[in-house]
Design brief:
373 residues; alpha+beta; Rossmann fold; 3 domains
């Protein structure tokens, strides 16, 4: 842990005399426990901590605390940027000054640049600078951070051709007249950390080729507790296989999604996060309350994509209209023809303890409902 904090504090250019961490993150998750509790305690940095239950009821309290205590550093999951932008009202920001915020770090994988833009547009009038919106790739197996975007600029955004990315696993420049997608960099490896992108045989892949992310550091795990099987499959020649897919470009890491979540449709590699993001763009859909997963079709011999989306309306006819709109939008904007869409009421979708979409749990719930009906 000390090796992690030493490397990460240098990357963040931590100054105990001027830095103040403001957080609502729960301490049962490594982002809250390491970055927003042990780091400030061990490095003697002032910490302003609030209950996640208080924050979710009144998200403006985070901004008020940053203003009151001159907060400089905050870590957030991706959904929090959208949540704050949509839920916080101007009346709760009177007198708020966010100019002290030098880094609001998004540790999601992948990071959605649209969420950052939405957050900046909402709060730039209160002194928030664009360069404060930063990114990080982190995991408990490395104590916390693996990479971090440089704090002296804006994280790189790589616009790539969607079809080539899905079919050839390559991140190439966009082609005029064809759908593209934007990937946000998670930054450079920490000084004590090495990162590789490898194929199924553990061979290094060239830049801009998508493969599994492998890492090595002086603060990563040595084994999973009482799980020799998991240890053997995850650690190879001293490298930890993260289970995440991504690619490297210009020395920076771009994370595309979890290996176990990948859906293969007719030979095309489809990341559920991309489809969930597209579904969230449809009017009437709760942003961030969508889930995509694959179901094997024996007749077709391939997987079919299922998207479940929570909607504002509980009227069956309106929900069916939203489902049709999702089918059209996803089919038009991606490399797949979407057929299976289920629009549901509020609070149907299951999330993990860290706020991520629990795809396997949602798939299981969907299959159970399908069997009943």
């Amino acid at each position: 842990m000390l090796n992690q904090l030493n490397a990460y504090s240098k990357t963040l250019r931590i100054d105990p005399a001027s830095d103040v961490i403001v957080s609502w993150l729960p301490l049962y998750h490594d982002m809250g426990f390491i970055a927003c509790f042990l780091l400030p305690v061990l490095l003697r940095i002032p910490l302003v901590n609030m209950s996640p239950f208080d924050w979710v009821r009144a998200p403006y309290k985070l901004h008020q605390a940053v203003s009151q205590y001159k907060g400089t550093l905050t870590w957030l999951p991706n959904f929090a940027y959208n949540f704050c932008a949509h839920k916080i009202r101007e009346r709760n920001l009177e007198g708020v000054n966010l100019s002290s915020w030098r880094a609001i770090i998004n540790c999601s994988e992948p990071v959605h640049v649209e969420s950052h833009n939405l957050f900046f547009e909402k709060f730039s009038a209160y002194g928030l600078t664009k360069s404060a919106l930063q990114t990080c790739y982190a995991m408990a197996e490395n104590v916390f951070a693996v990479t971090q975007s440089p704090l002296d600029g804006i994280p790189a955004v790589d616009e790539i051709d969607r079809e080539t990315f899905m079919t050839q696993r390559l991140a190439t420049p966009p082609i005029a007249g064809q759908p593209s997608m934007k990937m946000t960099s998670s930054g450079n490896p920490l000084p004590n950390t090495k990162v590789r992108v490898v194929d199924a045989d553990f061979n290094d892949l060239p830049n801009r080729s998508v493969g599994e992310i492998a890492m090595q550091s002086d603060c990563m795990l040595t084994e999973y507790f009482n799980r020799p099987d998991a240890t053997e499959s995850a650690i190879k020649n001293g490298w930890y296989l993260t289970g995440d897919y991504g690619y490297i470009a210009n020395g920076e890491l771009y994370v595309s999604g979890r290996k176990k979540d990948l859906i293969i449709v007719g030979g095309k590699n489809v990341y559920p996060q991309d489809l969930e993001s597209l579904a969230s763009e449809v009017p009437g859909v709760h942003a961030g309350r969508t889930v995509a997963f694959g179901m094997y079709d024996e007749e077709e011999g391939t997987e079919e994509v299922v998207i479940i989306a929570e909607a504002d309306s509980t009227d069956p006819l309106e929900q069916e209209a939203i489902a049709d709109a999702i089918r059209k939008h996803v089919t038009k904007s991606s490399a797949i023809a979407l057929r299976h869409v289920k629009v549901v009421d509020d609070k149907w979708i299951i999330k993990t303890s860290s706020g991520k979409t629990a795809r396997s749990a949602n798939k299981e719930k969907f299959l159970k409902e399908l069997a009943v009906h």
